[in-house]
């Protein structure tokens, strides 16, 4: 059995002049904090009462653009189903999703949420976020998306959107997430899946398994995405909503 970094042999006072031991104490402490956080995030409510759809997308797309209008309409449609909408809280297609959610809320009790990362060029959540969270790093922010979400919809975006969607894809691949839709909207994401099929499933040089490419559902537009989420949401209402959350998300 390996010795804990907090065993009695490590409790002696350490001079800051002893740089090697000081660095070891700091390293052990950071790893200990990570362990504590990982243990805390294992806890789940016995029943989830809200169904949350996270929409990942570009921060650069402006109001009036066709994609902005399509994402706003999609978020409104999902809100009408009774889904909370979660985004990165910033401008662009994130704003479009939060705006669509706010406009369709009525008295449904749904929420429009933003999970931001602290960036020098993006200071505030968009005006349509009702509940905002702010992270100092992308790593904790991505973890927050995973803890909150019951489904993911990926609309056009750049490197940040690709990072988010690939992380979710990988968590589904290794079954750290289960029964969680990942919907890619638009030709650019179908192109990504085609690229993976060409280069990661090259005969004789397979880097993934064929079923991995079936994880994301590729659709052309908002209506198809809403239809897929509607189907999953209906199952959640009748079955998954009554399950312990750990049966669905790890």
Automatic annotation (TrEMBL):
Molecular function GO terms recorded: AMP nucleosidase activity
Top-level division of the source organism's lineage: Bacteria
GO cellular component: cytosol
Enzyme class of the recorded protein, top EC level: hydrolase
Reactions that this protein is recorded to catalyse: AMP + H2O = D-ribose 5-phosphate + adenine
Xref: Gene3D superfamilies: 3.40.50.450
The enzyme's E.C. designation: 3.2.2.4
Official protein name in the record: AMP nucleosidase
